[in-house]
Design a protein that fits this description.
The protein is an alpha/beta fold and 205 residues long. It folds into two domains: 1-34 and 112-205, 3-Layer(aba) Sandwich (Rossmann fold); 40-108, P-loop containing nucleotide triphosphate hydrolases (Rossmann fold), CATH 3.40.50.300. It is built from nine helices and five strands. The protein has helices spanning 21-30, 38-48, 50-60, 73-80, 84-106, 140-151, 155-164, 168-171, 184-203, and strands at 9-14, 35-37, 113-117, 132-137, 177-180. The protein has a five-stranded parallel β-sheet, with helices on both faces. α2 crosses α5 and α3 (50-60) runs antiparallel to α5 (84-106). The longest helix is centred in the middle third of the chain and has 23 residues, at 84-106. The protein is globular.
Length: 205
């Protein structure tokens, strides 16, 4: 285990685009589990941390932020996702900031375990910083439909994003728990069952 006996255990939750990982995290939150949303934290830090802002501008230019100081997310995505070397350099600037922010947040939490929701986990070896990992999955066609409805993307746009991500088949062997998200009712039941299991497991350690 990563933490001392009296500290909350760290459970990481991940899933590909359209899997419903954020919905699953919110269900844990409804059960009283403290949840750290890594992607939201990264956005906050990129927009508010002066040192990080400057380093990102140096990497990609002034267009990283709009006139309101907000991330130009579509523009950034176009720049990064077609250039793996640039994406790696971007992540090398952002990830350490998120890591430090998460550790500060954990130090303020109580309970038998906390949850870290992150879009990318196994791809970076991040599971080594977790006590346990949960992977949220869903059939590809369902994931595509969800993203098309949520983001008003075309099927081709969603497929392109899916093709850039690791498949569920590649991630499943690396996860401690796998939850298939077919509908909200079933997902809710699965999260309640898993929460009960985790609470019992960690309270005995």
């Amino acid at each position: 285990m990563l933490n001392s006996h009296n500290s909350p255990r760290i459970v990481c939750l991940t899933g590909g685009i359209g899997s419903g990982k954020t919905t699953a995290a919110a269900l844990f939150e409804d059960l009283g589990v403290a949840v750290y949303y890594a992607d939201r934290a990264a956005k906050r830090l990129m927009e508010q941390d002066a040192e990080l802002r400057e380093s990102l501008i140096q990497l990609l230019g002034e267009n990283v932020f709009n006139n309101l100081g907000q991330l130009n997310r579509d523009w950034i995505a176009q720049k990064l996702f077609n250039t793996p070397e640039l994406l790696n350099r971007w992540n090398a600037k952002v990830h350490p900031k998120v890591f430090d922010d998460f550790n500060r947040w954990v130090s303020c939490q109580e309970g038998s375990y906390i949850l870290k929701e992150a879009a990318i986990l196994f791809e970076t070896g991040g599971e080594r910083n977790c006590d346990l990992s949960i992977l949220i999955t869903a059939p590809e066609d369902l994931r595509i439909e969800r993203v098309m409805k949520r983001d008003s993307w075309t099927r081709e746009q969603v497929k392109e994003r899916l093709n850039r991500q690791w498949s569920d088949e590649r991630k499943i062997p690396l996860a401690d728990f796998v939850v298939e998200n077919l509908d909200l009712k079933t997902l809710n039941l699965e999260i309640k069952r898993l929460h009960s299991q985790l609470s019992k497991r960690f309270s005995q350690q």
